[in-house]
Specification:
This protein is α/β, with parallel strands linked by helices. The chain is built from twelve helices and ten strands. Bound molecules: S-adenosylmethionine (SAM).
Length: 288
Amino acid sequence: MREGDFDLFAKLVKTKSGIHLTPDKAYLLESRLMSVARQQGMKNIDDLADAVRRQQTPALISDITEAMTTNESSFFRDQRPFEQFRNFVLPRLLQSRRSSRLIRIWSAACSSGQEPYSMAMVLHEEQAKLAGWKIEILATDISQEMVDKARRGEYNQFEVQRGLPIQMLVKHFTQESDKWIVKDELRKHITFKTFNLMEDAGTLGIFDVIFCRNVLIYFDGPTKTQVLERLSRRMPDDGLLFLGGAETIIGVTDRFKAIREQRGVFEVTANGPPGSNVLLKQHAVATV
Ligand SMILES: C[S@@+](CC[C@H](N)C(=O)[O-])C[C@H]1O[C@@H](n2cnc3c(N)ncnc32)[C@H](O)[C@@H]1O
């Protein structure tokens, strides 16, 4: 890669998505952007860099950014978060939301959809307790390609073999040739859309639970802080946040605190901007 081109692409990707590319990722950038260059009918990365310098069209910026996302996911990834969701979070919500009977959950970097579908399977297991309740799951990702795949809910044999118990596969999927397709009973609770965590999430509403797992690892410290503070403003006083196994709030923000014996789950603190708790309470009532 020519001198200066790595910095050009890294700056563009950081500005658009928050993804922080260090020089040791130059090989990754080069291999992934080579396919973007080819799709654009260009010979190589030099041509792509020249095109970016000439004109940064939204489509080109999106293609470059999406190429630099890592979309690794699996059903019931790490298992424990979904056990905590079932055994710790749901009983709490069944108690605290018994008058509104509404639970809103956000999978904030849903990739190809395994995370929100896993939540929907847990909720389905608990359906007897949730009779008469309204459950909404919002699943978002910056990548249009991933959101489209998640919405289709079609998985190959390799994908369903990773983390999905066979009884769940048989119960919630139908097989069509070499594909497994999620049944509507799961899909009906989930809304899929693109959303960039660098943007204000005000229009999305308030969420009782946010899964923001395995995405902060791609951001630098100040970006992690901004994202977590933005998420805290989308949660009521008793909202709960799930982070990935390699992610933490320690040294990043004081808007969340760890919960004893619930590794990876965090609750909102009262450290938001003055008056934010009052606003959240009003919003929560308005949502009901
Ligand atoms: C490794 S996947 C994690 C998927 C899932 N949460 C899990 O734990 O299995 C990270 C996802 O974050 C998404 N992502 C990266 N930057 C983002 C941003 N600024 N806004 C929203 N999503 C982003 C990527 O497109 C990718 O699908």
